[in-house]
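Lecture 7, part B: from sequences to assemblies.

Below are the input chains for today's worked example.
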Amino acid sequence: MIDYRRRMRANLAIAVIGLVLFAVFPLVANSGLVFLAGLVAVNIVFGLSWNLLFSGVGLLSFGHAMFFAGGAYAMAVVSLRLPDLPFAGGLLLGAMTGGIIALVFGYIALRRASGVYFAVLTLAFSELVHIVITKTTFLGRNDGLVGIPRPVINLGVASIDLTSALAYYYFIIVAMAVVAFALWSFQNSPAGRLIQAIRQDPVRTAFLGTDVRSWQLTAFVLSGTIAAFCGAVMVPFAQIASPEIAYWTVSTEPILFTLLGGAGHFWGPAVGAILFGAIDYATRALYGLSEITVGMLLLGVVLLMPGGLLGFLLSRRTAARRLTGSGKRVPMANAEKAT
Amino acid sequence: MASTETLLAVRDLNAFYGGSHIIRNAAFSVGPGESVALLGRNGAGKTTLMKSLLDAGPRVEGEIMFDGADIAGVPTDERSRRGLMLVPEDRRIYPNISVGENIELGRHAARAGKALSLKDIFTLFPLIEPLRDRAGYQLSGGQQQLVAVARGLLGAPRLLLLDEPVEGLAPVVVQDMARHIERIRQTQDLALLIAEQNLSFARACTDRVVLIDTGRIVFDGTWEDFDADPGLKERYLAV
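Predicted structure of the full complex, as structure tokens:
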């Protein structure tokens, strides 16, 4: 039997425990590490947004940097040019920018391509966005936009000062925990189930009267909106929006997070993003070693743990339970996906 | 304007997979409330013909009139929403969602105000109700088939296409499926087209026979006409 309430409680607990761990991190780490942890928190949701497409609806995007950069630049422009606009308005505009980019490019790409061709088209569109940013004076060309202020959120009766890096860090982790759990809730809603049905069997889902392409586009827009929200949240933290965040290497990051952590698990990209952040930190003094380490690790994971780190750990746990006779005897592949 | 005489009328239907010409000049019809068996050996073209009706796979030429309208160029999902529902041979139950959710997915094909409720479905298929919260992968073959038919029925289709619904099922389950289909025929206002190789099952569930061999319709008539010519069985169904 599928116990959805239990599943929801368990995943809410994961989000809350993750939030608590990130919340106590500044108590034991220096400001450099806290900054890195803030970026990891953003990357977790960035990875989850990519996996909504990949494991959710079965679309492979090689161009998620365009959404992240779209949100980041929209937030940067709003912060610098429209300082009177409330911070929430900037976040909303940032997220909407990603949604609009996804709607336009997704509409074209999904009409014309699927599978690998769709992935290559997203890469091409992402490069287009990168080139537009580097050639547009309004967006700072290759220098990017710098000096982006952190906000003070005015609630009328009180105000929340996020101008310090630490205060903004706490804002990031709360925002990311809320978005991550909202994303989990969406994926487990009737609409989310339909999107999963499309990934598992698009032809059958069309037989059932579903306009598959419209739902794929919906998932693409939602994924782009969330990725752009991540970019918009990140910009005041880093206080810079540079063209590097639109470069294709940024598009590979959520793919790496997901493959490292496990694509078949909702929290797989989160595990991958944390691991990726740790490797990045451990190899920060040695130029190029980070990429080599991540590359080797990815190769090892793909060859030895096709279900990613989370998939490997859960399969070990199930195997241990079977040995002790306390586990449920269900096929592993299905049991993994059911979590 | 919907026809009152013919629900589905197929004329000069040709279907191709790449350069392979699978269905050749097929012509047949199904009336409202009628139940028709589509018989033929493995590879005769039954599944291709059914998929052609939904435009789901082969390249199709020819005329398909459904409910009085030519549905050429109408996408698969729209055909489903117009009441043409296929339950494919491999059942395709989604493994990681519950039985109830699997059935609810059929609501996307519902015609305006016509969908059945889950309660209606459980009345038609009492065996499914206790399985409601079970995951799709936890069902036996017979249970999967019942859920697939139930899912197809939820949107209250006008014509339900069942592609080999009892293939691989135990004889007792086949009898049970025949009883369920009989109950559906008695209680629901819909027509059936059932592709089958199991003659006794097809006979129990249908009024008329369309026989297909190497992509051509070679017989179209009542069961009495079919039985009157023993050579038909010998030529087109014997292995």
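Note for the exam: Confidence is low (pLDDT under 50) at residues 329-339 of chain A. Keep this in mind when comparing with the next example.
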